[in-house]
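Lab manual, section 2.4: Encoding a predicted structure.

Procedure: take the sequence of the chain (224 residues), apply the prediction step described in section 2.3, and record the output as structure tokens. A sample record is shown.
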Amino acid sequence: MTVTINGNGTLTGLSTGGLVSQQIFTSSGTYTKPSGINTIKVIVTGGGGGGGGGNNNYNSYAGGGAGGTAIKLIDATSITTVSVTVGSGGAGGAAGSSGTVGNTGGTSSFGSHCSATGGFGGDGHVNPAQFTSGVGSGGDINMTGGSSQGYQGGDVSTDYAGGSIGGASYWGGGGMAGDSGGSHNGQQGRAYGSGGGSGDHNGASNHGGGGAGKLGIVVIEEYS
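Recorded output:
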């Protein structure tokens, strides 16, 4: 679909009517198009990755990366139903052990129209930006999720650094990190598709766990 603004400011080529309704999926299921809907706008976000756990050598592993997002405008005149998959958030690295890696978030999709992979779990790399984020595909707009911070410095005797915040998704920010002086556990991702914060440690054996990534989401806006 092409939209043009002519010399007097009038929109031409816009074939949709107004927004009528929307359907929101936070678990997998089946989309059923209501009668009278001709166009749909789909926003698909993958699940966030889990934050890594506390670590003796680095104080904390990285936070989880965010899931990617795909946005697509679809001619729905021939659509009746579409299978919807919502990616789960990745579990955080377990507490109690040094350097536990977080788990990758799940992929979300709207049939074969568009999809978005989940964010990777936090681990001990210095700069996780190139591999901690999910990415959208098949959309008119395909976005990469926000990267987490890398591991935070320090060692078993100098707990100077806090944990790492989870990556932000299209919908908002990730989970807060644990710290050596208070709660050692990272928090779950806040917004849909965001990464969990990493755990921290205090001493050689008190290792906090990483926060889980937030589950993904699929939103379908319906136009007459």
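Check your result against the sample. The chain has a mean pLDDT of 83.
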